[in-house]
């Protein structure tokens, strides 16, 4: 079976693996167990919704690179990666979701067979899907191994995007433009919230005539009226009401690369508090965009934004953005850089951020955000959606 | 702010909490840290896409019950639970996704303030989103606590559904009927796979005129031709081809309660191997349905099915179903009972299973499944979708 689903040239995957091995060496690691699906996908191309059971990719400094997962998911590895069949290793199905046996015990056996059990092994202790028990099973089964936390080691390698990755991000940007076009066309008071969500999902998956829409790592988030104070609420079957504001936190994806972008919808004439915040946020984006260039730090950008807000009478005590790229549920962020005062990471060309000046108050909320590519000339928005309240 | 989003009567939540405390007592636990979003939701009603950051519900044998999460998610707790504001506790935003600080360290401080730090504490070591580092941070910060694995303790309490839960499951069943109706209407060769996915997502979210469609814990899975060997593949932008089979593993959800249901689509005249398997699987469902009644075991059901398959020349070496109910990504299963030979769990009325006789071969795949409620009279399907290959 050939890798009919490959998204990047083999050379690009090799380059990513080399970068990762270099970072492993710097961290004193001989082997790394990669459990975060986004890291697995970035390193090898593996793409399937199988992360609800234990799986990983193992990469070593002696050239080791293999996928380990459930038997029925091995064909996904054949279709989506360039790994030879000898490096697609699977555990039997009675290891799935049972308290009796753990897939990581099976992996330990493979480590012993391959003489990897005395290595210095990195594990992603705080990445998604690497459970406390997964680590316990590994550590108990491999008493001679030396384990070290390597949370986000691969995530950091993903920060600067390749030209092909930037193309995918820009295509996701084209898709999100279509999504907001659809919202403007169809949203109206009286419609059930789920009907609006249905239109959004249809548009984001349909994509453009050239570029398909992939599923997004977070579903559409929306909150209306008082409920807009809750920034991670999803829809129900209640109706859109006139003279109310609603935030929409949406994204589009292409080949798993995400362009998140939020706007606020208002049915009727937006009250002064909406209009004032709209202006302040729009101006802050204009002001911040040129600062998304190599050399500036995440902290400087965040502080500039917070100062600007403060000057206009607003306070924000949560981060105003984060690094983005390829992603699987439950998050479209890369969990490396955050736009907040404490983060001293230095921007480099090819990095990408969701600049997220969302404001949530006791009984309302407002979002108007951009996904921004760092270039030598300053920030370049991935999408072109009117930067204003969507009024209907 | 009132709990405008409540889905069950307060008495039902109280009953669930009581059941859980009884199970805790049997397990020798004084306190339980619940991190699985499905368990959090089932115990308290909490509902939001905030599980991409650390959060939990803490339940204790002295009446303790509080939510702990990120500050900006506290309003979600006000809107979706009956917890008083004093029991909605949050950590500051600079604890989010950083290697410097861990939210579980902040929780440890709360435990000390509330004199909970010497208790016998259960943790869901192998449930979703409870990372190895989350446990390490807790254990290091609370050296006087005694920790014990309580993986799936709450999941097991969810196994038997209440009348209101069954209503939600049946509504999800009505929604999935609409989804397959849509598939039959729109699917045709030449269409891009993402366009079919867009229609599926639209139909599953639109729901019925009475009942809204919630997001599903897994996105539509689909594989065509050779790719149908990979059972957890999602769509891309390639086109549906004539004279090919495609499995569709879909679900609908209502108030987070899921009805998964799979069918196989064929454009043209299905070859004999499809028709033969269709007949065998259809007969096996007819034969198995009456066995979904109290007293039978998961293992007996699975063995009856495997024997039937074997008799017709097929072998299946993976489980043929699992318990279902309310769920959040990444899985719509409850991760307690599996329909496989090794599982001796006894069926009880009100349990619900996705009976999953999916077959994947080297270069094709076939799925025809049912979601089934256990009743004294045998299994009752949650949905009524023609049990045959969908031919177009």
UniProtKB/TrEMBL annotation, chains A, B:
Keyword Electron transport annotated: no
GO molecular function: hydrolase activity
Keyword match Signal: no
InterPro entries: Creatin/AminoP/Spt16_N, Creatinase/aminopeptidase-like, Creatinase_N, Pept_M24, Peptidase_M24B
Domain of life: Bacteria
UniProt cross-references to Pfam families, sorted A to Z: Creatinase_N, Peptidase_M24
Keywords: Hydrolase
Domain Creatinase N-terminal residue range list: 16-160
Residue ranges annotated for the Peptidase M24 domain, each copy included: 169-376
The name this protein goes by in its record: Ectoine hydrolase
Protein species of origin: Thiothrix eikelboomii
């Amino acid at each position: 079976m050939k890798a009919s689903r490959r998204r990047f040239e083999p050379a690009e995957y090799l380059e990513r693996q080399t970068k990762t091995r270099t970072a492993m060496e710097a961290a004193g690691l001989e082997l790394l167990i990669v459990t975060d699906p986004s890291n697995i996908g970035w390193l090898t191309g593996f793409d399937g919704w199988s992360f609800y059971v234990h799986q990983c990719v193992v990469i070593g400094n002696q050239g080791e690179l293999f996928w380990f997962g459930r038997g029925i998911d091995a064909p996904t590895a054949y279709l989506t990666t360039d790994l030879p069949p000898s490096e697609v290793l699977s555990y039997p199905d009675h290891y799935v979701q049972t308290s009796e046996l753990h897939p990581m015990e099976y992996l330990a056996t493979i480590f012993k067979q391959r003489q990897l059990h005395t290595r210095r092994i990195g594990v992603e202790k705080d990445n998604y899907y690497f459970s406390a028990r997964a680590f316990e099973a590994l550590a108990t089964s491999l008493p001679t191994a030396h384990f070290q936390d390597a949370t986000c080691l691969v995530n950091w390698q993903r920060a600067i995007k390749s030209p092909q990755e930037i193309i995918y991000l820009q295509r996701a940007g084209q898709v999100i433009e279509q999504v907001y076009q659809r919202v403007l066309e169809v949203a109206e008071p009286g419609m059930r919230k789920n009907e609006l969500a249905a239109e959004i999902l249809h548009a984001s998956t349909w994509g453009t005539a050239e570029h398909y829409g992939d599923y997004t790592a977070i579903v559409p988030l929306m909150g209306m009226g008082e409920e807009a104070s809750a920034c991670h609420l999803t829809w129900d079957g209640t109706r859109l009401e006139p003279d109310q504001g609603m935030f929409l936190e949406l994204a589009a994806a292409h080949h798993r690369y995400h362009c998140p972008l939020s706007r606020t919808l208002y049915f009727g004439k937006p009250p002064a508090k909406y209009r004032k915040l709209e202006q302040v946020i729009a101006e802050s984006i204009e002001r911040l965009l040129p600062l998304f260039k190599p050399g500036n730090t995440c902290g400087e950008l965040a502080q500039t934004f917070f100062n600007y807000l403060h000057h206009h009478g607003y306070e924000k005590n949560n981060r105003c953005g984060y690094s983005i790229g390829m992603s699987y549920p439950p998050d479209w962020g890369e969990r490396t850089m955050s736009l907040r005062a404490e983060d001293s990471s230095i921007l480099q060309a090819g990095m990408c951020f969701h600049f997220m000046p969302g404001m949530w108050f006791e009984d309302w909320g407002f979002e108007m955000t951009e996904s921004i590519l760092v270039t030598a000339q300053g920030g370049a928005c991935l999408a072109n959606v009117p930067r204003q309240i969507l009024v209907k």
